Amino acid sequence: xxxxxxxxxxxxxxxxxxxxxxxxxxxxxxxxxxxxxxxxxxxxxxxxxxxxxxxxxxxxxxxxxxxxxxxxxxxxxxxxxxxxxxxxxxxxxxxxxxxxxxxxxxxxxxxxxxxxxxxxxxxxxxxxxxxxxxxxxxxxxxxxxxxxxxxxxxxxxxxxxxxxxxxxxxxxxxxxxxxxxxxxxxxxxxxxxxxxxxxxxxxxxxxxxxxxxxxxxxxxxxxxxxxxxxxxxxxxxxxxxxxxxxxxxxxxxxxxxxxxxxxxxxxxxxxxxxx
Length: 275
Ligand SMILES: C[S@@+](CC[C@H](N)C(=O)[O-])C[C@H]1O[C@@H](n2cnc3c(N)ncnc32)[C@H](O)[C@@H]1O
Known about the structure:
Elements: E1 6-10, H1 13-17, E2 25-30, H2 50-64, E3 65-75, E4 79-80, E5 83-84, H3 87-98, E6 101-110, E7 126-133, E8 147-148, H4 152-157, E9 188-189, E10 194-197, H5 213-222, E11 228-231, H6 238-245, E12 249-254, H7 257-268
Parallel strand pairs: 1-12, 2-3, 2-11, 6-10, 11-12
Antiparallel strand pairs: 3-7, 4-5, 6-7, 8-9
The structure holds S-adenosylmethionine.
Protein name: Methyltransferase
InterPro entries: DNA_methylase_N4/N6 (IPR002941), MeTrfase_CN4_CS (IPR017985), RM_Methyltransferase (IPR001091), SAM-dependent_MTases_sf (IPR029063)
Enzyme class: transferase
């Protein structure tokens, strides 16, 4: 594939993934169908059967990801019979057995969530973005997602104590760590692992879309132009469009002809830049 090239597939992710060359993908970013205990819901997998369904897919993803690549999995466990189901926790443990490293967990805070009332819990306003890798040494371009230093800096950095200036040589060994004085004179800082993004359900003809900024952020962080981004459950194609708009190559798969045709049509009409 050349830059900005794409491959779209209509079909079952497990079958299509088996046709993709090993170690050929730089970033997988996806939101698989939700677990759903209602039997006839389209695409819904029963929570008790979720691992059995999903693990053959993660095995294929492990095969096709480059050793330096990253897999971002957007998932959140349902409440079943009044308690959180454990299928996501089991999935993490089972994926580690397959050979994945569970590197990090980002939180997507749905900042436009409206209020609700339940007898025993509050509205769920966040989802997991689990980061898996094959190797501790994966590609990560942290400077690409730096953010303005913010209001805290002026007051805090003008009043540094002795401990603020002591070099943090522990933990990651970066020599930078939490030493606050390192930020004097800087305009930008690294973000946290919490992404505050509004949900987008508006006009994309799909009920469970990513906000565009979500795949965009991970594509910036983990890939360079020309790299290959895969979404095996592309839905309305948000990750595919973000990848193409940023000069990456994109591979998208969906089992639903309506979504496949929607994404194909938009790319062919070059509408992806409208996102
Ligand atoms: C949660 S949605 C993805 C939404 C997407 N992130 C977006 O921004 O529009 C999951 C998608 O997986 C698709 N799907 C369900 N089972 C599948 C399978 N076995 N293989 C491929 N796609 C599947 C559904 O049609 C649905 O569009």
